[in-house]
Amino acid sequence: MNELFRKIPQKKVSDRVFDQIRELITSGRLNPGDRLPPERELTGLLEVSRSSVREAILKLECLGFVEQRHGEGTFVRSVTETPLTDYVREHIQQEGFMDDLMQIRAVLETWGAEAAAANARPEEIAAMEACLEEMRQAGQSGRIGHELNVRLHVLISAASANRFLVHVMNTISSWLKSVTCKIYADTAEDDATQARLLEQHDAIVAAIRSGDGPAARQAMAAHLRFTEAVVHRIAPSWSPSGSRKP
């Protein structure tokens, strides 16, 4: 029997660093877009050598958990980013794809809004309200607030406390920005549409703030139906790449 068993080797320090950071990402305690502490700070926090931290970060980057941006630092990536982004890039020009994606949003985000009403922490609700206020100010000053729109939807998804939803929403956020930018640009002079969009977002956040899950779901569903109708209205003059169709 002695020949069947071997001593378990002690794990490398860099592997333990890798395991800890990966667990923080997959558990949702570090979210897509979060910046990791600088290498020197991580060394002190983990009480390991800089070479161990460097090796762990490189492994995380190779496996797609983080990305290093020159001059900015190391940032968490979405674990769903590559497969979903590749799929969207390949199929976005196909007829009916936008409808499919809007339907998926309706499933995910209505559930996410209801979950956020049950799980949102005070600081998460405060972040949503701050984003809403920025949206109001953007509208009053005539600025296109599409990035704020997307940020609010991502904040709501994060407040759901569902790790997978957070990663999915961060992955498709660039696509959402292109769609919402077009909606806001094409309706910039349409005060009624702009007001409706703000009212709808306000209703969603109000329901989440009050902890009313069914109301949050209904408010999100109404907003997404309205958004889909606007997309259909402007679709003849729009293609996903942002260029005019011939």
Defining key terms:
246 residues, mainly alpha, Arc Repressor Mutant, subunit A, Four Helix Bundle (Hemerythrin (Met), subunit A), 2 domains, two-stranded antiparallel sheet, 2 strands, 3% strand, disordered C terminus
Description:
With 246 residues, the chain is mainly alpha-helical. It folds into two domains: 10-76, Arc Repressor Mutant, subunit A, CATH 1.10.10.10; 81-237, GntR ligand-binding domain-like (Four Helix Bundle (Hemerythrin (Met), subunit A), Up-down Bundle), CATH 1.20.120. It contains ten helices and two strands. Strand 1 (66-69) and strand 2 (73-76) form a beta hairpin.
Largest sheet: 2 strands, antiparallel
Looking at how many chains there are and whether they match, the oligomeric state comes to single chain
Give unreliable regions as ranges. 237-246
Q: Please tally the helical runs, counting DSSP H or I stretches of 4 or more residues.
A: 10
Provide the gyration radius in Å: 21 Å
Structural class: mainly alpha
- Could you state the CATH homologous superfamily of the largest domain? GntR ligand-binding domain-like
Helix content: 55-70%
Termini separation: 76 Å
* Tertiary shape: elongated
CATH C-level category of the largest domain? Mainly Alpha
Number of domains: 2
The proportion of residues in beta strands is under 5%
